[in-house]
Design brief:
globular, three-stranded mixed sheet, seven-stranded mixed sheet, 8% strand
Length: 622
């Protein structure tokens, strides 16, 4: 039996009532005064995407409409237009970010902020204790080294169910508390029951201890932030009394496998301009990603308590992707929700393999599709509704893309070669698919492919505007090699991820739920049987497409998708390859200049691991 370890400060209750989605709410604590508008930036983001989509629709309608548009052609046009809008909107957001980064804004003279008491909250569930606490120690010591007027304390909020992990967790806490420098505060609480999962874990802390803390900085079990980043977030909240939440831009670290390094490269290169553009058009109505964000405690308690959602069968269900909803509730109450992507030093890890990514995506899909039920809730701002809709569309687009792929494949290259023609030669709904070899049609297809690549190319061009230099990746040639490798890998993995997200959507719709199991953060490989079971649908679809292309029934333009799907099993196995092979394929600037905070965290992790395993001793902070 794991003995009960409970190291917490005196209780300071702060009520956190559940909100009512059927009635509006305005928090009386919100300071009066107008907040800056982002209307101009929103027009720059949304208008070009809408114009481009309408232009494509007009061209495609003219293309199809020579003999009238029938039902199947109308469905095709709707699918193409819907997908093209989201692609265009992503491109517009990146262009907006480039414009923002290129503007030479005069630095504002900041007034001295009021000191805040900030609780660093780290919820954990069956995580590797030395990794979590190694990061916690690193953040506390870096904060102490920087000094400042704010007061910080770290809370490890455990929902761990595994007795062995719980024992290691508590032994790690006791060992770490004996080595922390004077003045550093580390608390620990393990709940007897993990009621309402992470939502319940955070609300339990707010209800019992929240009144003593001006703000809480919510972390994930794999979060790591520099003291400078935490101080900048705290100062930003202190200087803006109307802000309820300020989200940082977490960058990926620690990638060792091919798939993880591909993700980390994309995050560190393309993500910067996109994040800047997102921050511009969001303005005071940003989003919350569930971690690495600072929140005004009393605002959160009064405005963001989550009720249960009533399902179609009458049962009440927990809101799983809580963060989007909490951001919307804060904004509904009048609090600002901001995104500050220029605060560097905020980090998180990423799933090491394609299968791990797909399993996490299934959990996120369940939560994001729940948001569709909240789009009509009373009082939400339009942009908050857009965030929730966008989160759901991110998953719904995969079955739409797959439907488009199937229809394109069935229609084939013309009436005489169509699969539909052979099945039903007299079908009155059979579309007159235009000849794909015509120059104007080829140009449209090339434009659509180019739009998919445009955010990556623009992100590369924007990189120097953000202060990052290509030389930091090991030189221009190494950067170019890594860029090309990432593009090729992303093209290969995109169709597989499309099918996996489609499976996640159907599992959610059919009520086949996954548990919220912890992410495998240390990498690993899967058996051939697991790979086959996971990627059977992709493999069969890819082989069928390939046979259709070789027999002349299916357009050759689908060859990249067919190859990817047919090779899903070996590509999934490749995703977990790590060490030297992965470094050669995709290089990152962290390979050449590792942040000091990650070196320190790795040292603390390894030291604590050796101590818990009985192979070393703990050393006190210098």
């Amino acid at each position: 039996m794991t003995r009960d370890l409970h190291i917490m400060p005196p209780k300071a209750p702060l009520p956190m009532p559940a909100q009512n989605f059927s009635a509006g709410f305005t928090d009386a604590q919100v300071p009066h005064g107008e907040r800056p508008s982002a209307g101009f930036w929103r027009a720059l983001a949304f208008s070009p995407a809408m114009v481009a989509t309408l232009g494509l629709l007009w061209v495609m309608a003219d293309w199809f409409g020579a003999e009238g548009i029938n039902l199947i052609e109308a469905i095709l046009l709707a699918l193409i237009s819907f997908n093209f809008f989201w692609i265009s909107f992503t491109v517009c957001t990146v262009l907006l970010g480039m414009l923002s980064l290129s503007r030479q804004e005069q630095p504002r003279r900041e007034s001295r902020s009021q000191p805040l008491r900030v609780a660093l909250l780290m919820p954990v569930y069956n995580e590797v204790p030395w990794n979590v606490l190694g990061n916690a120690r690193t953040m506390l010591e870096d904060l102490q080294a920087r000094g400042g007027q704010h007061h910080y304390a770290m809370f490890i909020l455990s929902d761990t169910r595994d007795p062995e992990i719980a024992a290691q967790e508590q032994a790690s806490i006791e060992a770490l508390r004996t080595t922390l420098a004077p003045g550093l505060e580390l608390y620990y609480r393990r709940r007897a029951e993990n009621t309402d999962r992470k939502v319940g874990n955070i609300s339990d802390w707010v209800n019992h201890w929240g009144a003593d803390w001006d703000a809480m900085l919510v972390l994930d079990a794999d979060s790591l932030m520099t003291g400078r980043a935490i101080l900048r977030l705290t100062d930003a909240l202190a200087r803006d009394p109307g802000a309820g939440l300020i989200q940082s831009y977490p960058q990926l670290i620690g990638a060792q496998s091919v798939f993880a390094r591909m993700q980390q490269f994309a995050n560190g290169v393309y993500g910067i301009a996109f994040a800047e553009g997102l921050a511009r058009w969001c303005g005071q109505e940003g989003n919350y990603w569930g971690h690495n964000a600072i929140i005004r405690t009393k605002a959160f308690a009064s405005s963001a308590g989550l009720p249960k959602l009533r399902a179609f069968n009458g049962q009440e269900k927990l809101i799983m992707s809580h963060d989007f909803v909490e951001a919307g509730l804060l904004r509904r109450a009048g609090w600002g929700v901001r995104f500050l992507p220029r605060i560097r030093g905020s980090y998180e890890e990423t799933p090491p393999t394609l299968i791990d990514h797909a399993l996490r995506d299934r959990r996120w899909c369940q939560g994001n599709l729940q948001h569709l039920k909240l789009l009509g809730a009373t009082g939400f701002r339009a942009v908050s509704r857009f965030h929730m809709f966008h989160g759901a569309v991110g998953y719904l687009m995969s079955p739409l893309w797959f439907a488009l792929l199937v229809m394109w494949a069935l229609i084939g290259q013309g009436e005489d070669a169509s699969v539909l023609h052979y099945f039903s030669p007299d079908n009155p709904l059979f579309p007159q698919w235009p000849e794909m070899s015509e120059t104007r049609h080829v140009l449209i297809i090339l434009v659509m492919y180019a739009m998919l690549l445009a955010p990556k190319i623009l992100g590369v061009l924007a990189l120097p505007l953000s202060g990052v230099h290509y030389a930091e990746f090991g030189g221009r040639s190494k950067f170019l090699t890594s860029f090309l490798a990432e593009v090729i890998l992303s093209i290969l993995y995109a169709p597989i991820l499309m099918v996996q997200q489609m499976i996640a959507v159907f599992r959610t719709v059919l009520g086949i739920q996954n548990g919220w199991s912890p992410q495998m953060r240390d990498g690993g490989s899967y058996s051939l049987r697991t790979l086959i079971l996971c990627h059977a649908l992709e493999t069969v679809s890819g082989i069928a497409l390939s046979v259709g292309i070789l027999s002349g029934l299916v357009s050759v333009w689908l060859a990249p998708i067919a190859i990817s799907l047919a090779l899903a099993i070996p590509l999934s196995a490749l995703s977990g390859v790590s060490a030297t092979a992965a470094r050669r394929m995709v290089g990152m600037k962290e390979d050449f200049r590792e942040p000091a905070i990650t070196r320190m965290a790795r040292r603390h992790r390894n030291e604590l691991k050796r101590f818990i395993e009985g192979k070393g001793v703990m050393t006190a902070a210098e």
